[in-house]
Design brief:
chorismate synthase activity (chains A, B, C, D); FMN (chains A, B, C, D); homotetramer; EC 4.2.3.5 (chains A, B, C, D); 357 residues; aromatic amino acid biosynthesis (chains A, B, C, D); FAD (chains A, B, C, D); alpha+beta
C-alpha cells in the first residue's frame, strides 16, 4: 500500500515536526518475540538531536512509549502502537516562513499538491519523521537477532573513508561523533563539518551499510527484489539522492570477466561484487550498499527566494539545524534496512511448501 | 502488493524465458483512453533482440496481443490482459546447465529459495521478463501524452557521454545502435562493444533518463516519494546496480550554498540539482536520473564454477547473448518510468478534495 | 493490505481492552476537508458504554484526541493519527480468566494462533476496538457530506420492526435507548432486553442500514464490488453472523420476473430489490443492507468450560456487560459504511480519464 | 489491492464474455506443490455451461491452459499464468442491446462509471469471469489437500433441503443435475427449475458450503477475519445477495445461553453455532456458511426498459441462459472458499515466531 512501509510486515506512521507527537503502528509483527525496550531507546538516542557538537543543538528527549501489542515482555501478534511526544516546539521560529518558499525545501510542492501545509518546521516534510522508522527498525532487529547490520559514514564532502569495509572495525563506529570507524578519517570529517558549520553552511556525505549473516533466499523476484526494496526505503529518507549496492556505479565500468563472482565448493563466492544478492535474492554473502545524502537545505545565511505569491524575499535559516546529516543518518539507514529485511524474511516463510510440510 | 508493480495502477506479470509465453495484466487502467497499438509495438521493437550488430542475435518477433480491456480502440476500465508468445526456444542450449550454477547468475539463489527452478535460459530470472514491463509502460505513456520521457546511453565501460543532457538532441537517440544521441560518443561506444564482443566478454554501462512536463504534485510522501518509486522500479531491472537522481552521488560532495536551487518568480528554479523533485513531490522542473548496469554475467569463455552438489565444473556461455545490455535497456528504463509516473499521477487525483469538489 | 481497512483510504488501528489506549492512523485522507470535531465526538458518544439502562454500565469518557494531519481546522493530506485513552481498566476483574477459555469467546483461538494473549477483557478480541472504526468513519462522513447514512435496530430476538424502512422517520432513531425509529416496537425491544438482562442472559438482533444520495458509479468490479466491501467490513464487527443487501436471502426465493427492477426514463428504477447496486456499482438508488448479530457470549451465569489444560472449570461473567449489542452497533455500522463508501468514492476518481481531462 | 483477490496469495484476472479469452495470474503461490491438472479441469467441467438440462445450453469446452509457474509437474514459486479461450461468441446475439439497459443488469452502471462498455454478453459484468476463480481455487485446493470443502444447493426458490448438513452424504452431490445431496429434494428442485424454464422465467436459490479439517489459527483479526474474507469473496460472485455463517441470521433471534458453544476437554465444542470460527480465527470445528443468489436477470420474456437516452424500449432475452444459477454456483463457491483459506493459511505461517524458530 502506498504511504506505508513494508509488504507484509507493515509500518504506518504519523506526525509533524511541530505537532503534538510522532508515532506509528507496526502491523503483522509476529507473536512471541521478546522485546528489549532499552535497545530500541538506544537506537533513538543515536538518532537524537543535540548529542554532539556537529549535529543540531535542538533538544528532544525522544522517548518512545509503546501503547499496545506487547504483553509481559513479548509481542502478541497484534498491532504495535507507539508514540514519541514532541517537546521542543518553538513554533515562533517558523512564523516568518509561513508564506515563504525556502530554496530546496518542500514548501512549494506541498502547497501545490495539497493546497495547505503545516509550515512549522517543515511539518510533514521534516526529517523528524524518521524517528518513527528507527522505532520500527529497532523492533525488526529483534526479530532477526542473528543478522548483523552496521552502517557508517563513508564520506563527508570530498573526504572519503578509503579503506574497504572489510578493513574496518565496526565496534569503533560509535567512538566518534561522525560515526566513521576509521579514527583518522573521522577526525578530518569532524573538522570539515565544524568548519562548514562556522560558515553557516552545510555539507553532504554518504553512508555505507554492511549486512552480515542474512540467510540465503531473502527477496522476491520479480518486483520485490531485495535491492529494490532497500533502494525504495533509502530513497524515502530525506535528502537521499542515490543508492548503489555491490559494485554499484563502478560495476558499470567493468567487464564480465572482471565482475563475475565465482563459486567456492560451499557456494560462497570468491569475490562479492554482486553485493550478496543474485536475481533479487540473498545468496548468503555480505550485503553492502551505499547511500548518498545532499547537503541540508537550511543554511544560516541570507538566500534570495520567493513567497507564495512569487514576490522576491530573503530567507535566512534560524533556529538550530544540522550542518551535515550523515552522522544522524547512520542509525536511520541501519534500522530501515532491518525493517526491509524483516518484511522479506517473513514473506519468504510462505514461498516454499516444503518449509511447512 | 509485493511481486506486482504499482500501487493503484497495477501490473502483474508471468512468463519464463523458455516457457510458452510472457504476459501480464494491467489493472485499474482508467477507461476512455485511446490506444495506439503501433506505438506499443514500436517500444517492443526497440527492446527486441537481433535488431543490431551489438545486441544478441537471438531472433524473436515479440508481437504483443491484447486479450481484454480495450474495446473499439479505447480502454474500458477493466483489466487489460496481454500475451507475447515465445518463439525461439532452443531448450537444448541449456540442458548442459541444468545442474550447474553459473557465476553471477540466479541459478543458486532460485534453487535455494524455491527448491526447484526452470533452468532453461534462466527461466524466471531471465531479463526477457522486461518485455512485459515495456508493454505496460507503453500503455502508461498513452495515459500521459503530455509528458516527454527520453532515456539514452550515457556510458559504456569508461566511455562517457560528457555533454549534459541539456546539450543533447534526443531526436537523434535512435540514429545509432547504441542509443547515445551524441554521434561521436556513440561511435566510440559501439567500437568498444564490438571489441568486447570479439573477446567473448561483456561490459557494463549507464542509462540516463530525462522526464519533461511532469505536472507539479506527483509523488506521495512519506513512503512513496517519486524518487523512491522510480528507484524501486529501476533496481528491479536485471543487472541494475545503482540509481541516482538530480545531483546524485556528486551532490554528496557539495555544500548547501552550492546545492540549493533558488526560485524564479514563476516558481521554476534557476538551477535544478534537485532533479525536479522536492520532498518526494514533482516541482515542475525536469526530472532526471541515472541507472547503472553491470556487465552481463554470461560470457563466451570457459569459467570455473560448481554444480548443485558443489563439484567443480567449467561453464562456458553458449547461444546468443548481449555483450552489453544498455542499448536495449533504454526502452525498458523509459517505459518503466512512464508506468511509475502514471501510477502516482492517478493517486494524485485523490489527494486534494478541491480537485473534485 | 490484510489487517487494515480500506484499499486507498486506509485505516490501521491498535489497542487492547485493558491496555493504555486505542488509536489509529487514517492514511491517504484527502487534503482540504474541513473537520468538525464535535460531530466525531457525537458518534463516539452514541457508541459509548453507560449511556442507557440497556447497555453495559462500564464507564468510559471515550474522548478522541487528534495528533496529526489536521491543521487550522482542515485536513492536510498527511496521515491523521488519533488516540482514545482507556480509563476504566479493572484488570483484576479478569485475573480469574487468565487461564480459562470462555465459551464462544476468542480465548482459545488467540492462544492457539499466537501462543500468547492479553487476556484482560479479551484484549485485542474486545469489541472496544470498534471505537477506532467509529472515529475513522466519522471522519469519512465529512468527506461525503451529501451522503445520508442511517442505521437502526430492526430486530431484537424475535421482535422485528415490521415496517419497511421507507415508512420510518430516521430523525426518531435517537429518541429511544434501543435506536429503533418505530416508538412502539422500540418499547417492546427495550422491555425484552431488560427482561433478558434480569435473567443474566443476553440476546441477539439485527441492524438495518440505509444509504441515500450515493452518486452512480461507486464500486469496483470484479473483486471490490460495493456490496463485497460492505460485507467484509460488517463481518469484521464482533458478533456479526451475517450480511444481506437489497432483497437478500428473500431474493433467493423469488423469480426473475418478480425480482427485476425496471427503469424509469430518468434511469431510476421502479422497484429497488437490487438495493442500489448493479454489477457491484452504485446505481443512484437507495443502498440498504441488514446485519445479524449473535447474542453476547458473556452471560452472568455459571457455565461449564475448560481451562487451557483442558480441565473442566466453571466460568461466570463478572463486571459490566451488554445484554444486547445492537443499540451500540448502530453507530458502528453507520460509520463503518461511511468509511467503505469514502474509500470506493476516492478510487472512483481515478477510473475514468474523462473525469480529469 | 482492490480488484484483485487475496492478500498474500493473489489472483488477478482478465476477460470479457465475448472477448478472445479469459485468464489470470496467481501470484505468490508457494513452490514445490505437485499439480494435478485433471483435478483442475474437473472443477471447470462442473461449472461449464451445457452440462445438463437445467443449465444454459451455451456450449464452451472451457479448457484451461497453463502458461507459466509450473515446471515438471510442480509449482516453481513464480507467477502462474493461465488462459481459457472463448469459443462460442455469437456477438450478433447482443447487437440489439448495444444501446439498451436491461433491467437488473450492469449495463447502466458500467456505462455511467466508465463512459464505455463492451456490451456483448455483458462484457466484464458477465458471470463467465468466475471461470478464472475456479481455476485459482482448484489450484489452492491442491495446496491444502487435507481440507475438505463441500458445497451443495440448499434451496431453489421455496424448496429447501430441510436436513442439516451433518445428515447429508456429500459423495452424492454430483449424482444429480441440481447438486443437492438429498435425492428426494433434488428431484423437486429440478422439477421446479424445469417448470420455471418453460415459463421463460428464472429463479433464485442458496448454496451451503461446509469446510472440514481446517487447522486451528486461520484468520487475521482485526480486519481480515476468516468470515469477513469469505463474505467478501462470496459477495463478489454475480447474483449473490447475502452471506451468513454458523447460526447466521437465526443466531440473531437466540439468547446467549442457547447460543454459546461449550468446550470439550479436547477443546472441540459440544455445539457449533459459531460455525468453526471464534474472534475471526478458525477453532478446528467445521466451518459452514450459506450464500443467497437472486434469480438470473435475463428472462426470455418481453420486459419494459429504457435505452441509453432514456427512451422506452422492450427488451427480450435471447440466446441461451441459466434458469437458475445455483447448480453451477456450487463449484464456484467451493473453489473460491479454497482460495480464501489458502491465502489466510499462508499468512498464518508468518504470525508466530515459534513456528520458524
Amino acid at each position: 500500500m502506498f504511504n506505508s512501509l513494508g509488504n507484509l510486515l507493515n509500518l504506518t506512521t504519523f506526525g509533524e515536526s511541530h505537532g503534538i507527537a510522532y508515532g506509528g503502528i507496526i502491523n503483522n509483527f509476529p507473536s512471541g518475540v521478546e522485546i528489549n525496550l532499552e535497545k530500541i531507546q538506544y537506537e533513538l538516542d543515536r538518532r537524537k538531536p543535540g548529542q554532539s557538537a556537529i549535529v543540531t543543538q535542538r533538544k528532544e528527549s525522544d522517548k518512545v512509549k509503546f501503547l499496545s501489542g506487547i504483553f509481559e515482555g513479548k509481542t502478541t501478534g497484534t498491532p504495535i502502537g507507539f508514540l514519541i511526544e514532541n517537546e521542543n516546539q518553538k513554533s515562533k521560529d517558523y512564523d516568518h516562513i509561513a508564506e515563504m518558499y525556502r530554496p530546496s525545501h518542500a514548501d512549494f510542492t506541498y502547497d501545490q499538491k495539497f493546497g495547505i501545509r503545516d509550515y512549522r518546521g517543515g511539518g510533514k516534510s521534516s526529517a523528524r519523521e524518521t524517528i518513527n522508522w528507527v522505532v520500527a527498525g529497532a523492533l525488526a532487529k529483534q526479530l532477526l537477532p542473528e543478522i548483523e547490520i552496521n552502517a557508517y559514514v563513508s564520506s563527508v564532502g570530498d573526504i572519503f573513508c578509503e579503506k574497504p569495509y572489510q578493513a574496518l572495525d565496526f565496534s569503533k563506529t560509535e567512538n566518534n561523533d561522525v560515526r566513521c570507524p576509521d579514527a583518522e578519517t573521522a577526525e578530518r570529517m569532524i573538522a570539515r563539518i565544524k568548519e562548514i558549520k562556522k560558515e553557516g553552511n552545510t555539507i553532504g556525505g554518504t553512508v555505507t551499510c554492511v549486512i552480515k549473516n542474512v540467510p540465503v533466499g531473502i527477496g522476491e523476484p520479480v518486483f520485490s527484489k531485495l535491492q529494490a526494496e532497500l533502494a525504495k526505503a533509502m530513497l524515502n529518507i530525506n535528502a537521499c539522492k542515490g543508492f548503489e549496492y555491490g559494485s554499484g556505479f563502478c560495476g558499470a565500468k567493468m567487464t564480465g570477466s572482471e565482475h563475475n563472482d565465482s563459486f567456492n565448493p560451499d557456494f560462497s563466492t570468491k569475490s562479492n561484487l554482486s553485493g550478496g544478492i543474485q536475481g533479487g535474492i540473498s545468496n548468503g554473502m555480505d550485503i553492502y550498499f551505499r547511500v548518498a545524502f545532499k547537503p541540508v537545505a537550511t543554511i544560516l545565511r541570507p538566500q534570495e527566494s520567493v513567497d507564495k505569491y512569487g514576490n522576491p524575499v530573503i530567507v535566512e535559516g534560524k533556529g538550530r539545524h544540522d550542518p551535515c546529516v550523515v552522522p544522524r543518518a547512520v542509525p536511520i539507514v541501519e534500522n530501515l534496512a532491518a525493517f526491509v529485511l524483516a518484511d522479506l524474511f517473513l514473506i519468504n516463510k510462505t514461498r516454499n511448501i516444503n518449509q511447512f510440510k
